C-alpha cells in the first residue's frame, strides 16, 4: 500500500517524466518505502554516578572557596506571606559582601531603594575595624568561610543519593538532570546549615564537562528545629539556586530563591526570599579600599 507521501511523489513524477519511467520510479518507491522503519531515537548513556558526583562535590568545594576571594553585591528581597501565599509585606536590601581571612563581612548599603545614612555606614565600618583588630590580637587561624546567605551545594551533594533522569540541552551544552534524596534520616542536632543540607530532596542540573552544578531545586524532607537560641521549627523549606559561569572561567552563585514556613515561639511565619548575587570583583587585601570601590568597576562581573 502506498503512503500518502508516496502517492503525491508518484503524481509529481508523472508530470515530469514519461509514463513508463514514472511507473518504474513509482514501483521502486513502493518497494523501498514499506521496508524503511522510522529511526529510533538515540539513547544517551549516563556517566557512572559514583564517579561523577565526587568530582562535582570536590569542584563545588573549590567554588565555595573561591567565592571568598571575591567581593560581590547581594540584592535580597524578603516577602512575608499569609496562609494563602498572599504578600503581606516586602522589603529589599542591598549588601556589599567582602571577605577577609578571618570573616566574611556584610555591609548594608540600601533599604527599599534608599541608601543607608552616612552615619550608619560609618558605624558599620567601625564595627568591621573592631572585629579585625580582635581577630588579629587573638591570632585567629583562618578557616573555611562562606557567605551565610548561600546554600552550600557541596554539603548537599555529599549527604545525598543521586539518580540520573535525563539529558537536557542548555546554551549549547548537554546537562544531566538528577533526582536526589538524603542518604540517611535527618539529624535532630548539630549546626542548622549542616542539618538543612542533609535534609534535602529534589532535582539538580549538572554540567558533566565542567563537573559543575548549574541549578538545584530542593525541598526539605522533615521539620527542623531552629536551635541557636531560637525556639521553634522550620516545617517546610523549598526553593532553587542557580550558578553561572563568569567570563567562561569560574562558576559562581547568581540567583537564589526559597520559601520557608514554620513556627517561632507561639507565632507562625511564612517567608519568601529572593537573592541576586552580582558585580563580582577580585578582593584586595585592604577591606576598606574594597568597600569604597565603585560598584561596576569590576573585572569579573555577572
Q: Rg, please?
A: 28 Å
| Sequence of secondary-structure elements | HHHEEEEHHEEHEEEEEEH
How many strands? 12
N-C termini distance? 60 Å
Mind describing the biggest β-sheet?
12 strands, antiparallel
Number of structural units classed as domains: 2
Average of per-residue pLDDT values: 75
Number of continuous helical runs: 7
Helix percent band: 25-40%
Share in β-strands:
35-45%
Structural class by sheet pairing and helices: alpha+beta
Q: Tell me, briefly, the overall form.
A: globular
Supply database-style keywords.
41% strand, disordered N terminus, globular, alpha+beta, single chain, disordered C terminus, 12-stranded antiparallel beta sheet, 7 helices, 302 residues
Would you write up a description of this structure?
- Helix 1 (4-16) runs antiparallel to helix 2 (19-32).
- The chain has two domains: 4-35; 49-291.
- It has seven helices and twelve strands.
- By secondary structure, the chain is an alpha+beta fold.
- A hairpin with a 2-residue loop joins strand 11 and strand 12 (267-282).
- Strands 1, 2, 3, 4, 5, 6, 7, 8, 9, 10, 11 and 12 form a twelve-stranded antiparallel beta sheet that branches.
Topology diagram in text:
Blueprint: H1 4-16, H2 19-32, H3 49-66, E1 70-81, E2 87-99, E3 104-111, E4 114-115, H4 118-137, H5 153-158, E5 160-170, E6 173-182, H6 192-197, E7 200-207, E8 212-220, E9 224-227, E10 230-246, E11 250-264, E12 267-282, H7 287-291
Antiparallel strand pairs: 1-2, 1-12, 2-3, 3-4, 5-6, 6-7, 7-8, 8-10, 9-10, 10-11, 11-12
Amino acid at each position: 500500500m502506498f503512503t500518502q507521501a508516496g502517492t503525491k511523489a508518484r503524481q509529481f513524477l508523472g508530470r515530469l517524466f514519461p509514463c513508463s519511467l514514472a511507473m518504474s520510479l513509482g514501483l521502486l518507491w513502493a518497494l523501498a518505502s514499506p521496508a524503511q522503519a522510522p529511526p529510533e531515537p538515540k539513547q544517551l548513556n549516563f556517566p557512572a554516578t559514583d564517579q561523577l558526583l565526587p568530582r562535582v562535590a570536590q569542584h563545588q568545594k573549590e567554588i565555595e572557596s573561591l567565592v571568598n576571594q571575591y567581593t560581590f553585591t547581594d540584592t535580597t528581597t524578603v516577602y512575608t506571606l499569609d496562609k494563602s501565599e498572599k504578600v503581606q509585606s516586602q522589603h529589599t536590601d542591598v549588601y556589599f559582601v567582602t571577605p577577609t581571612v578571618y570573616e566574611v563581612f556584610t555591609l548594608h548599603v540600601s533599604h527599599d531603594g534608599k541608601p543607608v545614612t552616612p552615619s550608619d555606614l560609618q558605624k558599620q565600618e567601625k564595627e568591621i575595624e573592631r572585629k579585625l583588630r580582635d581577630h588579629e590580637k587573638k591570632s585567629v587561624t583562618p578557616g573555611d568561610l562562606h557567605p551565610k546567605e548561600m546554600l552550600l551545594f557541596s554539603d548537599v551533594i555529599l549527604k545525598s543519593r543521586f539518580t540520573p533522569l535525563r539529558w537536557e540541552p542548555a546554551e549549547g551544552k548537554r546537562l544531566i538532570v538528577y533526582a536526589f534524596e538524603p542518604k540517611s534520616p535527618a539529624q535532630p542536632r548539630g549546626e542548622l546549615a549542616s542539618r538543612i543540607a542533609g535534609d534535602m530532596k529534589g532535582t539538580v542540573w549538572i554540567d558533566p564537562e565542567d563537573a559543575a552544578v548549574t541549578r538545584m531545586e530542593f525541598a526539605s524532607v522533615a521539620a527542623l528545629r531552629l536551635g541557636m537560641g531560637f525556639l521553634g521549627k522550620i516545617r517546610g523549606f523549598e526553593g532553587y539556586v542557580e550558578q553561572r559561569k563568569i567570563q567562561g572561567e569560574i562558576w559562581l552563585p547568581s540567583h537564589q530563591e526559597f520559601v520557608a514556613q514554620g513556627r517561632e515561639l507561639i507565632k507562625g511565619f511564612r517567608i519568601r526570599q529572593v537573592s541576586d548575587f552580582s558585580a563580582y570583583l577580585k578582593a584586595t587585601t585592604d577591606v576598606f579600599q574594597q568597600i569604597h570601590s565603585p560598584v561596576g568597576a569590576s573585572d569579573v562581573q555577572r
